Structure prediction request, 199 residues.
Amino acid sequence: MKKIVLAVLLTLCFSNAFAGIDEGIDAGTKNLFVYGGSAYPYALELNGIETEYGSLGYAFGAQFVYNSKDWLGLGLDFNYSKADDNLTSTGDTTKSQMWTGMFMMKIYLYPEEGVRFYLPLYGGFGNAKISSSGTTNLNSTETGLAAGTGLGIDFDLNDMWILGVEFRFTRMFIDSFGANKLNNDFDYSNGLIKLGYKF
Prediction:
């Protein structure tokens, strides 16, 4: 799988170099992205007991970006991440999910290029839900502040379309789930494939 992804990325890099398309980011332009990919929840420590609330799952979302400068994009991002069920050593089935709506800042490296890395910064609100069934029954939802960062790369397919890849880490700042004290934060990571439209 890694070899396939690498081959696609190299193909895009070389094709952009010879395609003669309008590459790069121009100040005042806008981008609309939709994306999907993987979601992974980190272990939670509730009441002093560390438990995996779910396993590798899926994510999808959308974002709007206004490029106020050629190196800086500002916008909004909406993300849904859901973990697959996880079976613990005690026989419990655990799972979790997270919604976020966040403002975003996208800092481009080499914005004039058709292939460009960027640093995303996110801040806003999130809604997290965890559940457990079996020997321990738990179903709790919390809302709180959320923030994220990561690393991404965009490829100009032509004058209108962008293909992107992004790794993202998101944290929700909550200290409990109902009556259960949370000794760490609620964290998710995402590996995302993005398709964007320029206008």
